[in-house]
Design brief:
Radius of gyration of chain B: 26 Å
CATH superfamily of the largest domain in chain B: P-loop containing nucleotide triphosphate hydrolases
Radius of gyration of chain A: 24 Å
Largest sheet of chain A: 2 strands, antiparallel
Low-confidence stretches of chain B: 332-337, 667-684
Shape of chain A: globular
Shape of chain B: globular
Number of strands of chain A: 2
Largest sheet of chain B: 8 strands, mixed
Number of strands of chain B: 24
Oligomer: heterodimer
CATH topology of the largest domain in chain A: MetI-like fold
Number of domains of chain B: 4
CATH class of the largest domain in chain A: Mainly Alpha
Structural class of chain A: mainly alpha
Number of helices of chain A: 13
Helix content of chain A: over 70%
Low-confidence stretches of chain A: none
Strand order of the largest sheet of chain A: 1-2
Strand content of chain B: 15-25%
CATH architecture of the largest domain in chain B: 3-Layer(aba) Sandwich
Largest interface: A-B, 25 and 32 residues
Strand order of the largest sheet of chain B: 6-7-8-3-9-10-12-11
CATH topology of the largest domain in chain B: Rossmann fold
CATH architecture of the largest domain in chain A: Orthogonal Bundle
Helix content of chain B: 25-40%
Number of helices of chain B: 25
Distance between the termini of chain B: 41 Å
Distance between the termini of chain A: 6 Å
Mean pLDDT of chain B: 86
CATH superfamily of the largest domain in chain A: MetI-like
Strand content of chain A: under 5%
């Protein structure tokens, strides 16, 4: 187990290295000139050249890459040319906001999905199963922006009980916690729809297994069979998928963050990409990849804990 | 005698989109205290429905539409869920076909066992634990206390089934329902499990409802037998009476279709039951078996319901033409056996063939050991003859077949087809001419045929690829092939799912024949088929061998089948051939102790036969173990202490018959060694 984790962490370091290089290279190849962007269309070519030299952008890309990586290893991710602020400060702040949103959403999504999925799947084709299946496919098929606009129309425009934007500042007239309600709702509807379907189909599959029959014919009540025999088995398959939602919640919330003007990580990355803000982009990518790989590692370890047949 | 389970003229129907379908029709039987009833019949005859109905656990859509099912006198239809849970696992317990999937994979065995007493009255966890350990000891599992901690996947198939049996017996039930409990287990393990069931039955006095398609295992366990066909009980009675004078034509058919250890051998004709069971047969007003019956007469059999007729001493049969059936003698079997062909040319010559896999560590490269799947195998397959390879699972018989057919490459040694050595050539490396000459037939025809292509396509592909036939020629050849395997030409236009299992296997055989091969390797070709269909396929294979003079390598675990089909037999254990020779000599003394154990373990459908014994204890060693002496030494009942562990066994030759063993087999008269004579009487 320890050995496996160590191996995975080593893998992760190598992947991070490769990804950082790829991002750097892609950025280098894509059209557009950073200095021109900074100075605007009316600056003279000599001014642009001067700034290019000053920022050291005239040196070979490889040299700049290794210089950047060298600094990054000491925790210095350089300065954002767009926000004019050290990347580390900027990013931890935004990442913190996103992690908060992600954590709240995760804490809502997982119990709901598991509960509904299991209840629906334990009696295949029962009325509850049908209702849940319809609900989950509707949720999963409405895109976030549509769901967001829809909820905004109801709770903000019509009822006026919730704020329409969530800048996480206390001066907007709404309590901070209220600013979380709508973003969390949108994410939950969208993501839970998908997870419920996953858990349900896994549960349906498990309930058809011969060992469920064995458990029932031992004299267990149906409730006992579900709780003691089916539940753990039914969670094995969706477990990795549930953890994968963390990736989505950390780096895939661009739409929701943009919709609610939420100062999060996804939006930061989008803006950085548009502005060719390489320092932010690099650091953000490394964070996103680390999150993915860490959840994968935890996924594998949790998988082993759930299923005794899997050992490394 | 108190009655535990009674079906009183019970009928069960399935209501689906296509309307009502009768699954069980007027089934009537009872099982008294301590009694054992066997239920036999082909697949889909309703055997399992009987088991599930007794537990009131019918699949969705099925219900009892007529009659009653009583457990200890009470009609189970009227029980509440709570009352039902008090019966399930407590008064009636069940043992299932596939033990691996019947045990919860993520729960330790101990917990699953303790659940039973805790559900049925026991409140003290420690007491439940002790009872579970005691029961594991009853079913002869080693280190019972340690076993409690283990998970199902850490046990072998035989051990898993012991755990399931232990679990069923935890609450000391009045009735044990066993649904195909030994199907899928090796013959030696099967014998051990059956022995255990007999012992436990004697000890606890549990009544048994034993469901099986294997008449041999039923004869071994049960006092009475019921034969089901298309949801109806067609014959029932004491085992001896039914086996000695089977009265329903279907029962006769089942018994006649069975290859036997004691049979004449050399492919004497078996008598398959013609035709197949059709869904519509269940709805017939008269006899459901009439369309397949050679005694059927229109008026008597088809027009009105047929009632059970008492033949004396509880022997009943549901047949309108009983007198005619009973008056006719049973066909004399094995009449058409052909004489052995001496000196047939050798098609395939295997010499010193070995296959090893190197195990690698986590980071690759690091050696953890070597799996020796096949070690120094010498064999010959001859034209027009069958070479059977037998042994328990894991003995290397399938690996050997895969090397011959090129699915795997051997590590060392020779596999010669004519002058070409194929040992290290996988299929892709073999010249097309060689590929054509070796063909395979697999166990499961469903997975061999592509479900989205017609039979004509499946058959014409090898014709075009292996024999370069133009599409017109291929078409006529397809018709010839179908005729060869006794299928009507129309089959060519059908899709695989429109055919029955037996027909699909015929197509698979036709496909193998398409390239006009010299050698066909058949891996358990009939073990997925019903007995009645199996007989027809075996007859077909026998005919084809004689007509086309091809060599057949038959991989099988069924000794009776091997006795029937084979000319030569190789007995494999742990990757080695321990005994090899002409079938009659291998099946009679002197024996290798392993062959002897296999023969003793095989159940025979004969209530008078000496009971098979589980001569083998323990398990086959892991193929990673390095074996200096005899591979079988760890389980051999006649092991010579020092010698067998340290010295490789010498090969003893008796003409063409070879046995690798330290025992001085040749010098002993068979009678001197205990039990040998008994075997001889049952197989010769």
């Amino acid at each position: 187990m320890l050995r496996y984790s160590a191996k995975q962490l080593l893998n992760m370091a190598l992947t991070l290295f490769a990804v950082s290089f790829l991002v750097f290279a892609l950025n280098e190849l894509s059209p557009g000139d950073v200095t021109r962007k900074i100075l605007g269309p009316y600056a003279s070519q000599s001014q642009v050249d001067h700034l290019t030299r000053e920022m050291g952008l005239d040196r070979p890309a490889l040299v700049r890459y290794f210089e950047y990586m060298g600094k990054a290893l000491t925790g210095n991710f350089g300065n954002s040319i767009y926000y004019r602020q050290p990347v580390s400060e900027l990013m931890w702040d935004r990442l913190g906001n996103t992690l908060l949103l992600a954590a709240i959403s995760f804490a809502v999504i997982v119990p709901i999905s598991v509960l509904l999925g299991v209840l629906a799947g334990m009696r295949e084709r029962g009325w509850f199963d049908r209702a849940v299946s319809i609900f989950s496919s509707i949720c999963a098929s409405i895109p976030e922006f549509a769901m967001g606009v829809f909820l905004l129309a109801i709770f903000v425009v019509w009822l006026g009980v919730l704020p329409g934007t969530s800048p996480l500042r206390g001066d907007a007239g709404w309590a901070i916690w209220m600013q979380f309600v709508l973003p969390v709702l949108v994410v939950t509807f969208y993501d839970a729809g998908y997870l419920i379907a996953m858990v349900r189909s896994s549960m349906v599959e498990v309930m058809r297994q011969p060992y469920i029959r064995t458990a029932l014919l031992k004299g267990n009540s149906f409730r006992n069979v579900v709780a003691k025999h089916a539940l753990r088995n039914a969670l094995i398959t969706p477990f990795t998928v549930i953890l994968l939602q963390l990736n989505y919640l950390v780096s895939g919330l661009v739409v929701v963050e943009t919709l609610f003007a939420y100062p999060g990580f996804g939006r930061l990355m989008l803006e950085a990409a548009l502005a060719k803000d390489i320092a932010v982009l690099e650091a953000g990518t490394l964070v996103a990849v680390s999150v993915t790989m860490l959840t994968q590692l935890f996924g594998d370890l949790g998988y082993m804990a759930l299923d005794p047949r899997i050992r490394v | 005698m108190a009655e535990i389970l009674a079906f009183e003229h019970a009928s069960i129907a399935y209501d689906g989109r296509a309307g009502r379908q009768i699954i069980l029709n007027d089934v009537d039987f009872s099982i008294g205290e301590g009694e054992a009833l066997g239920l036999v019949g082909e697949s889909s005859c309703g055997k399992s429905t009987v088991a599930l109905a007794a537990m009131r656990y019918l699949p969705r859509g099925m219900s009892v539409i007529d009659g009653r099912i009583r457990v200890e006198g009470r009609d189970i239809a009227g029980l509440t869920d709570r009352e039902l849970s008090r019966i399930r696992g407590n008064r009636i317990a069940m043992v299932y076909q596939d033990p691996m999937s019947s045990l919860n994979p993520v729960m330790p065995i101990g917990k699953q066992l303790m659940e039973v007493p805790l559900l049925h009255g026991e409140t003290d966890e420690n007491a439940a634990f002790r009872r579970a350990v005691a029961m594991l000891e009853e079913v002869r599992l080693p280190a019972a206390a340690a076993m409690m901690e283990r998970y199902p996947h850490q046990l072998s198939g035989g051990q898993q089934q012991r755990v399931v049996i232990a679990m069923a017996l935890m609450a000391k039930p009045a009735l044990l329902i066993m649904d195909e409990p030994t199907t899928g287990l090796d013959v030696t393990i099967e014998a051990a499990i059956l022995e255990l069931v007999r012992e436990l039955r004697a000890k606890f006095g549990t009544a048994i409802l034993f469901i099986s398609h294997n008449l041999g295992t039923v004869a071994r366990i049960c006092d009475r037998i019921g034969v089901l066909y298309a949801g109806r009980m067609v014959e029932t009675g004491r085992i001896g009476a039914v086996f000695r004078s089977p009265s329903h034509p279907y029962t006769r058919g089942l018994l006649g279709a069975l290859p036997r250890l004691s049979g004449g051998g050399r492919r004497g004709r078996l008598r398959p039951i013609e035709g197949t069971i059709a869904a519509a047969d269940r709805a017939r007003p008269g006899c459901a078996f009439a369309p397949r019956c050679s005694f059927a007469a229109r008026h008597e059999c088809e027009e009105r319901p047929i009632l059970m007729v008492e033949l004396g001493d509880g022997h009943l049969a549901r047949c309108a033409r009983l007198d005619a059936v009973r008056a006719s003698a049973e066909d004399d079997r094995a009449a058409a056996a052909s004489a052995a062909t001496d000196g047939a040319p050798i098609v395939l010559r295997v010499r010193k063939l070995s296959k090893e896999y190197k195990l690698t560590g986590l980071f690759g490269g690091e050696k953890k050991g070597v799996v020796r799947a096949v070690t120094d195998v010498d064999l010959d397959a001859r034209a027009g003859e069958t070479l059977a390879i037998v042994g328990e699972s894991g003995c290397g018989k399938s690996t050997l077949a895969r090397i011959v057919s090129g699915l795997l490459a051997g590590t060392s040694g020779e596999v010669k087809l004519g002058e070409t050595d194929l040992a290290k050539l996988e299929v892709d490396d073999r010249p097309p001419e060689i590929r054509r000459q070796i063909q395979m037939v697999f166990q499961n025809p469903d997975s061999t045929l592509n479900p989205s292509h017609s039979i004509a396509y499946a058959l014409s592909r090898p014709l075009r690829m292996l024999r370069n036939l133009a599409s017109g020629d291929a078409k006529t050849e397809v018709s010839k092939l179908l005729a060869q395997v006794r299928l009507p030409v129309e089959v060519a236009e059908r899709m695989p799912h429109q055919l029955s299992g037996g027909q699909r296997q015929r197509v698979a055989i036709a496909r193998a024949l398409a390239g006009k091969p010299k050698l066909v390797v058949a891996d358990e070709p009939v073990s997925a088929l019903d007995v009645s269909v199996q007989a027809a396929i075996l007859n077909l294979l026998g005919e084809l061998l004689e007509q086309s003079r091809l060599g057949l390598v038959l991989i099988s675990h069924d000794l009776a089948l091997v006795r029937h089909m084979a000319d030569w037999v190789a007995v494999m254990y742990l990757g080695r051939v321990v005994e090899y020779g002409p079938v009659a000599q291998v099946f009679s003394p002197p024996f290798h102790p392993y062959t002897e154990a296999l023969l003793r373990a095989a159940p025979t459908p004969d209530p008078d036969a000496a009971p098979p014994t589980a001569a083998l204890e323990g398990m086959m060693p892991s193929p990673t173990e390095i074996i200096v002496g005899c591979a079988f030494a760890s389980r051999c009942p006649s092991r010579i202490a020092e010698q067998c562990d340290t010295t490789p066994p010498p090969v003893r030759q008796f003409g063409e018959h070879r046995i690798a063993c330290h025992l001085e087999l040749g010098r002993q008269a068979p009678a001197e060694r205990g039990g040998r004579t008994e075997i001889r009487s049952s197989i010769s």
